[in-house]
């Protein structure tokens, strides 16, 4: 039999149907508290009760001034996440004087997805090794310990899903008809590591973390001493009236003269409640945990940036890797089961550890689909480094030096095709690297072709290009690519001063820095405006202002720079043009909007796909117009795009704009 400290806290209570009650059954709660207490003892984190009486404490203590606003957990068994987050928020306000708002959704997800369940022999549980956020509770006051191992992001990065139904509503988006369909590890992972639940943006903002914790006996004297020292107490409690069972709340003060504790709960009270020292009719205090310190708010937990889905490429073989945790709750600091790799013969265990403050991941992909011991360093060793200026891509090598790359995305294409009358010759390329693009550009320009469309997009830490050329006469033109923001502005100013006007601009990133590709033509035309490097808010504001002045959007390029999204756009002042423009659309939202506008007599005039944290989004423009034959596609991988290109080309269609972008692992 394994030692007690090798048993996962997740093994009790067992995975079960969804809990509709905000409390846990008394027996399951008692078992869970016993296990967490045993673990605290094994880690030497139980506050010793010395032979001498504690120092005198005030008769009345209140830490209310450090408390964050009241929240409500509603019908989900998330009490321990709320209590832990509230304790963390108070500790930060007390130490740094700054109010923070911690994501309870992330804290709950962390306690579930990061757990590593073991059976009584110490083997990792099968077929699913962790708990699910769909199931309530399965946690206790030891959340203070887990918050020393895993930082949490602000609320805005992973907003709390206010009801069980809100969580269930994600399942159909993932292709899962309902909660009863979740049976495999892959089903559990789909919910836990999708953008609709815990966005990747939350992982790269995991910054609020406890620096120490202790467990103490839940005696009146011990709790008073802890509160008097300026530390809130996270308590497992038993709710005595129906529904009877286990719960977790936060003690924030006491009044010895009245013999009551002040507590913060999240059942909609919106005020501090009182719990009598003895014989309280509603609550019985069963444990006491507290945070001793917190890290600097400028801290970011690098290990969290690694968690989630990756595409790994080794010797041209690309496969999915899912990292669920950075360490084991029960054995912190030790190599552990990090997740799974999906190879042609099935799921392989991935064990390993993080080094160099989380910047270096050493993982071992098991040699086959057979289970391995948690933390076993067997199989293929892969060392990968993450440059935190671009958390979407990582690179490293096998032990023998063979290069390895990891990416959060796979390239997709969105395109607009129009019928070509067969007059002038044209050429198109997609997915070519910078060197190939320059060589092709030079060759076609020498043959009398002029560039009519160019799109740069990020792939890994580099860039690729889509372009269309037409062999036709026209005004003088200039084209540039690979320009930094400052270089683009300088070229823009110079060409504009010489009578050139922007025809198209595309933003993208190389090594985490914004770059631009653009085409200018020296010709007359209506008044025009162009912007680049706009944030979401700046783009919307500029769009509103220019539209009000009679400008019509002609093109827009959305592009990702690290975890940020930027926009470059071109407007012309035109009268009598009815148009519709949207941005920030998910794949499902884009298709819905597309169908509605086409049915209302609009035709697509421009589309730009871009990566927004872990998923693809779309910015698009429609004109109200009749006639003309056109086709549009989006979400195509390279092979599907080539097939579509070939089929439409044979029917007399050519691409007008082609947008490359990265898409994540789950549709939205």
CATH C-level class of the largest domain is Alpha Beta
Q: Regions with pLDDT < 50 over 5+ consecutive residues?
A: 1-19
Shape: elongated
In whole angstroms, the N-to-C terminal distance is: 45 Å
Notable traits:
668 residues; alpha+beta; Cathepsin B, Chain A; Lipocalin; 3 domains; eight-stranded antiparallel barrel; six-stranded antiparallel beta sheet; elongated
Brief account:
The protein is an alpha+beta fold.
Q: What do you see in this structure?
A:
- The protein folds into 3 domains: 4-12 and 20-294, Cysteine proteinases (Cathepsin B, Chain A), CATH 3.90.70; 304-407, Lipocalin; 410-663, no CATH class.
- The chain is α+β, with helices and mostly antiparallel strands.
- α2 (79-96) crosses α3 (104-113).
- The strands form 8 sheets. Strands 9-10-11-12-13-14-15-16 form an 8-stranded antiparallel beta barrel. Strands 1, 3, 4, 5, 6 and 7 form a 6-stranded antiparallel beta sheet that branches.
Write the layout of secondary structure elements.
Layout: H1 26-42, E1 60-62, H2 79-96, H3 104-113, H4 143-149, H5 164-168, H6 170-173, H7 185-192, H8 200-203, E2 210-216, H9 220-228, E3 233-239, E4 245-255, E5 260-264, E6 273-276, E7 283-285, E8 288-294, H10 302-306, E9 308-314, E10 317-323, E11 336-343, E12 346-355, E13 360-365, E14 380-386, E15 393-398, E16 403-407, E17 410-419, E18 426-433, H11 434-446, E19 450-459, E20 462-470, E21 477-483, H12 485-497, E22 500-510, E23 513-522, E24 528-534, H13 536-548, E25 551-561, E26 564-573, E27 579-585, H14 587-599, E28 602-612, E29 615-624, E30 630-636, H15 638-650, E31 653-663
Antiparallel strand pairs: 1-4, 2-8, 3-4, 3-7, 4-5, 5-6, 9-10, 9-16, 10-11, 11-12, 12-13, 13-14, 14-15, 15-16, 17-30, 17-31, 18-20, 19-20, 21-23, 22-23, 24-26, 25-26, 27-29, 28-29
Helix pairs in contact: 2-3
